[in-house]
Amino acid sequence: MLIEKRNDELKKLMDSVGIFNNIEAYIYDIKVRNVNEKIKNLSYTLSIFDTQSETEAWEDSIYTGFIELKCAHTMQEGDNYLIEKIANIPNFSTVYIDGIFAVDNKTNKPKMLEETSQLIHPTYSFHTTDISANELDSISKSLQDAILAGHKVFDYTFMGKGDFDKKINDNLVEKFNAAKTGLNPKDSLYLIRYMKGIMLDSSF
């Protein structure tokens, strides 16, 4: 019940902010694998340490836990942004990340990967949109608006349950197209990385 509550709260937070910006994390298990001449797989693990918090499962005792994030990217030829960002970051370094929790397409909740220690040390799949050894820039208001609009389209079109209303969908798409119009080139590429990441959730 506590795990479900945390996942419900995480989903509400994601719906509210669209994306998490400049989170401090610990990176390890960095791997790059060549699938073929044109496709590479990049994977790594991030640990985000909780501040001290309380949980009923431990009789309201104080504990320091961490959230483990599993990240994987399949990149076509020429799509080297994240590989180039990570290339000079050693394993077991502190990094700063932007991104969002992957969502299970059956439950529309953050996707958990392990069954053990999920209350104190949960493991989630995570979509990284940016990463650096130094603090990242704040996301602009126009980019955040476009991310939120894209998130709503994805949630309704690909993750929505029940009857599909074309008018509602068309309205959400129209708002998304309007929100991304006028983004500068850097923010436009950022939005593409974000949308590519969350689109993977529809195939889980």
Percentage beta strand: 25-35%
User: Major sheet: order of its strands?
Assistant: 1-2-5-7-6
Oligomer: single chain
Q: On the 0-100 scale, what is the average pLDDT?
A: 85
Q: Identify low-pLDDT runs.
A: 52-63
What is the string of SSEs from the N terminus onward?
HEEEEEHEEHHH
Q: How far apart are the termini?
A: 24 Å
How many helices? The count is: 5
Number of strands: 7
Radius of gyration: 18 Å
- Shape descriptor: globular
List keywords for this structure.
alpha+beta; five-stranded mixed beta barrel; two-stranded antiparallel ribbon; 7 strands
Explain the overall architecture.
The chain is α+β, with helices and mostly antiparallel strands and 204 residues long. Helices cover 34% and strands 30% of the residues. The protein contains 5 helices and 7 strands; from the N terminus they run αβββββαββααα. The chain has helices at residues 2-17, 81-86, 141-157, 166-180, 185-199; strands at 20-34, 39-49, 53-55, 61-63, 66-76, 93-101, 123-132. The protein has a 5-stranded mixed beta barrel. The radius of gyration is 18 Å and the shape is globular. The protein starts with a helix and ends in a 5-residue tail after the last helix. 22% of the residues are buried. The model is unreliable at 52-63 (pLDDT under 50).
